[in-house]
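Hypothesis: this fold can be encoded by more than one sequence.
Test: take the structure tokens below, design a sequence, compare later.
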């Protein structure tokens, strides 16, 4: 079972690794590190002896030598989203996700060079500027990395067997376990292989001749690759290519890291379709749906997604699908069909072809296609939401299995029916079945516990029956997820003895010591698929539904510093396992190290929930754990602070002024040393002084309205009254004046409203706060008390909800909207009656249409914050910026700045680590200005990038300063 004790690390191995890897921080040997990397997205779990993070090819070669010298297995890992157990190891786990993320666009977008640690979606984001994309399109493309896409030969909804990594590979650079480096872009690559590894060179030629001399095997290989197939090694390489170095390169595609290290690859790219037309079609039976696949494909459809009746029921139950009065009975099915093209003329032609197909079908309801983005997005949200709907039903302790198989299209209807019968026979009544119908590729999702022997036996029996079914229908047991551990015992059954013999020889030829990801693809243990299974103990109600898929990791601000949400949960589960084993030194070490890595450096921004298939917000868990650490004395102190926020606000303004004065008189370094010294005296961390901290604003007072507004009065102004209540956030009142600006944030918004002829009501709000600073630190009672008083204040100032309320901090607005459960019934009712609006939406919807805008000739970097993404403000912010500046760019590496109020000042290393990729992009982008939408985030981005970030409102102010009717306020600063 997977809950075996954590074995101590061999000190000799640790010392050897530290000699190979130059920086101690890149050799991870603590119990917390090993537990964090023990899981991937599969149902398997193995405890590595150490995790290493090489930066260079020289370090990889040295790791190969060390692995062979000491007989320690080695496994390469990128995103860890593997579904078949390819990315776990009980030897050395080599993490490539931190330092191997270079992208280089070649030939004007015609080709792209990638390293293994690049996220697939980032490659497409870069290529989008050239109207291109990579061929593979897995559903996990915004999480998975190119190392996994290449070594698993991943595909997806449109990719099929013609646009995958194997077919679009241009060249590949690899390091063999012997240490030899081969780059097939080099014209001398073949000669280098012959001289450096003569046995490999000749062995590949010998295997090619042997395969070509066996007509049955040749025919089998050709037949197997007419459908999607990632079982075993890519034997088609021997038939498709003549030269050994090209055979080698294409063997490595789909080899799951068992033959060599793939350092980089060059892929040929494809045009990115700009126009889409999508429809959901309902059928009486699955057979009827499958009968429509060929006509749709012949008509030019790029994506044809099948969903069984269980999918439809689940989607309706969870509000993902609204079919109105249409009833879908047992056995019914649906196809989600999409046409994609580049020009309107092409789209017009596809409309005609689509109409002809629809006329020939017997549907449950009339078929309808749409080009409306919102409708298309809803359909794809439903399709991509199928996995989470099953995940949401799983009980604590259960895993979610996501498997994929493929069949020749003529076998698909019968195989589907048998597969559905198999679910019932083995007790998987909640399973759903869907997939890429034009490729005969079906996915099924089911829940399964591995905590008890009978459940494991049920799983073993199901996989045996599944293998028999797929092989009988001449299908693939793995269509696009890779062989891994769970199908390695079935490779010979699917491929036959002759092909299996070739695969064993390939492994022995390239990895003669058998130390590179052993047990994956080639495994002589017939029960390997039921060993190292992942038990999932119950730990915390906030995260027990986690399926450890890793989708949360790319958006986590601490991912490059300490732990990701998946890893925090994995470590919590390891603590429970260790408790069951009696505790001891390992449990004590886990608890000590988890304080900093798990609790202190979690930003708690909730971005993990936006990427999580089952919407888990790990930040909520961490905030509860922080809360549990507070003793009654600390809670009483927080409550006192909450009741005297007016005084606290005055003291905070004094502290900021003092900091600026100290910086001016003594310098930045001395001021920072004083901050650290004060923290040591008090015995706690204090926020570090930063040159990014803005100045204290002048006391806010609204500018005098223009005698004649630049636009007719807006709604709410017609009787001389206010259009909205403007409440500035407490931090805006404390330090809301950027160093490079004359006006404060609140003054700027008031000026914009004045220019637009919109009158604002600005109440005295000193001492009012949304409670977010308390909530993020786990002071729940103080958070609730502060929020309650703010709601009462807003209720009164808005005339009991009659006027909309504009807030200038997106994080505060998001916190208010998501914290209603803390309030009593009456306050919650009032909160629900308030019309709360972010300043960005207020500018976009109300002010900008009434302003004369003169677009500035500026190249602008835009950082929509986490709260902006939660609130759906990103596109509105982009439109505001594009209205006011000639060139606007949201960085591809957009992330959370990890400020989380003061956390980025308490732990500056968290802020620096979180923003590093985005900072590199901004620094290389030669931007004239940088803008965001939240004060603390602007501090964090300024601190991490060295470029001053200010509110987007300042860009709007600059673009409207010389508008007709605005000469007065352009000449005379407000306040």
């Amino acid at each position: 079972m997977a809950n075996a004790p954590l074995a101590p690390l061999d000190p000799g191995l640790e010392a050897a690794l530290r000699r190979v890897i130059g920086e101690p921080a890149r050799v991870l040997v603590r119990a917390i590190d090993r537990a964090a990397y023990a899981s991937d997205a599969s149902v398997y779990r193995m405890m590595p002896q150490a995790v290493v993070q090489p930066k260079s090819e020289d370090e990889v070669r040295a790791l190969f030598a060390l692995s062979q010298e000491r007989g320690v297995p080695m496994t390469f890992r990128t995103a860890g989203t593997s579904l078949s157990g390819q990315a776990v190891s009980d030897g050395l786990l080599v993490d490539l996700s931190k330092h191997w993320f270079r992208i280089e666009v070649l030939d004007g977008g015609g080709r792209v060079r990638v390293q293994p640690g690049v996220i697939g979606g980032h490659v497409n984001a870069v290529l989008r500027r050239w109207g291109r994309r990579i061929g593979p399109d897995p559903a996990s493309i915004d999480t998975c990395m190119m190392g996994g896409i290449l070594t698993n030969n991943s595909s997806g909804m449109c990719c099929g067997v013609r646009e995958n990594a194997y077919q679009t590979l241009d060249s590949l650079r690899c390091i063999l376990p012997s240490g030899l480096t081969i780059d097939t872009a080099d014209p001398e690559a073949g000669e280098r292989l012959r001289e450096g590894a003569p046995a490999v060179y000749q062995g590949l030629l010998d295997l090619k001749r042997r395969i070509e001399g066996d007509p049955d095997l040749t025919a089998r290989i050709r037949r197997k690759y007419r459908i999607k197939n990632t079982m075993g090694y890519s034997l088609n390489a021997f038939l498709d290519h003549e030269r050994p170095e090209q055979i080698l390169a294409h063997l490595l595609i789909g080899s799951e890291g068992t033959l060599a290290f793939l350092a980089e690859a060059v892929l040929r790219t494809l045009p990115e379709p700009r126009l889409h037309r999508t429809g959901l079609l309902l059928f009486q039976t699955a057979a009827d749906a499958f009968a429509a696949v060929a006509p749709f494909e012949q008509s030019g459809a790029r994506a044809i997604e099948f969903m069984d009746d269980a999918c439809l029921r689940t989607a309706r139950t969870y509000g993902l699908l609204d079919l109105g009065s249409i009833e879908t009975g047992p056995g019914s099915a649906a196809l989600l069909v999409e046409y994609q093209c580049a020009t309107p003329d092409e789209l017009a032609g596809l409309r005609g072809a689509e109409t002809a197909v629809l006329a020939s079908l017997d549907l449950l309801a009339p078929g309808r296609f749409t080009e409306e983005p919102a409708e298309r997005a809803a359909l794809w949200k439903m399709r991509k939401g199928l996995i989470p709907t099953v995940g949401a039903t799983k009980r604590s302790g259960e895993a979610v299995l996501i498997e994929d198989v493929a069949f020749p299209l003529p076998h698909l209807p019968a195989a589907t029916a048998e597969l559905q019968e198999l679910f019932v026979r083995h007790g998987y009544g909640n399973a759903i079945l869907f997939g890429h119908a034009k490729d005969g590729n079906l996915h099924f999702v089911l829940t399964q516990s591995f905590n008890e022997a009978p459940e494991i036996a049920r799983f073993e029996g199901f996989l045996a029956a599944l293998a028999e079914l797929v092989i009988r229908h001449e299908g693939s047991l793995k269509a696009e997820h890779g062989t891994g551990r769970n199908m390695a015992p079935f490779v010979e059954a699917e491929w036959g003895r002759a092909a299996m013999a070739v695969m064993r020889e390939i492994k022995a030829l390239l990895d003669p010591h058998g130390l590179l990801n052993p047990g994956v693809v080639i495994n002589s243990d017939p029960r390997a698929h039921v060993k190292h299974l992942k038990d999932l103990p119950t730990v915390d109600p906030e995260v027990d539904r986690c399926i450890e898929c890793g989708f949360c990791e790319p958006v986590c601000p601490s991912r490059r510093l300490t732990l990701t949400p998946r890893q925090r949960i994995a470590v919590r589960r390891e603590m429970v396992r260790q408790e069951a084993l009696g505790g001891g030194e390992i449990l004590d070490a886990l608890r000590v190290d988890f304080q900093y890595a798990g609790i202190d450096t979690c930003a708690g921004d909730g971005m993990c929930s936006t990427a999580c298939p089952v919407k888990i917000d790990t930040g909520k868990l961490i905030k509860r754990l922080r809360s549990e650490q507070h003793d009654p004395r600390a809670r009483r102190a927080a409550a006192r602070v909450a009741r005297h926020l007016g005084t606290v606000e005055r003291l905070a303004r004094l502290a900021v002024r003092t900091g600026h004065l100290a910086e001016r008189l003594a310098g930045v370094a001395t001021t920072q040393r004083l901050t650290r010294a004060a923290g040591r005296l008090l015995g706690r961390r204090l926020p570090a002084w930063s040159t990014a901290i803005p100045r204290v604003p002048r006391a806010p007072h609204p500018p005098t309205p223009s005698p004649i507004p630049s636009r007719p009065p807006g709604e709410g102004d017609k009787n001389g009254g206010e259009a909205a209540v403007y409440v500035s956030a407490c931090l805006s009142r404390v330090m809301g004046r950027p160093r490079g600006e004359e006006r404060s944030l609140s003054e700027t918004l008031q000026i914009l409203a004045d220019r637009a002829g919109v009158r604002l009501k600005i109440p005295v709000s000193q001492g009012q706060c949304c409670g977010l600073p308390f909530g993020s630190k786990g002071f729940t009672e103080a958070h609730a008390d502060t929020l309650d008083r703010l709601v009462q204040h807003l209720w009164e100032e808005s005339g009991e909800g009659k006027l909309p309320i504009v807030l200038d901090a997106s994080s505060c607005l998001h916190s208010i909207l998501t914290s209603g459960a803390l309030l009593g019934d009456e306050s919650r009712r009032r909160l629900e009656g308030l019309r709360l609006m972010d300043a960005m939406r207020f500018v976009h919807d109300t002010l900008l249409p009434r302003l004369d805008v003169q677009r500035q000739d500026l190249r602008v970097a835009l950082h929509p914050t986490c709260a902006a993404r939660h609130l759906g403000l990103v596109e509105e912010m982009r439109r505001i910026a594009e209205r006011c500046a000639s060139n606007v760019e949201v960085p591809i590496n957009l992330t959370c700045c990890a400020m989380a109020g003061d956390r980025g000042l308490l732990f500056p290393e968290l802020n620096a680590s979180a923003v590093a990729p985005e900072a590199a992009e901004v620094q290389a982008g030669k931007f004239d200005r940088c803008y965001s939408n939240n004060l603390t985030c602007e501090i964090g981005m300024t601190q991490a990038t060295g470029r001053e970030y200010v509110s987007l409102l300042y860009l709007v102010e600059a673009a409207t300063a010389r508008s007709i009717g605005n000469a007065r306020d352009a000449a005379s600063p407000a306040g």
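The radius of gyration is 30 Å. The longest helix spans residues 645-666.
Hypothesis status: open.
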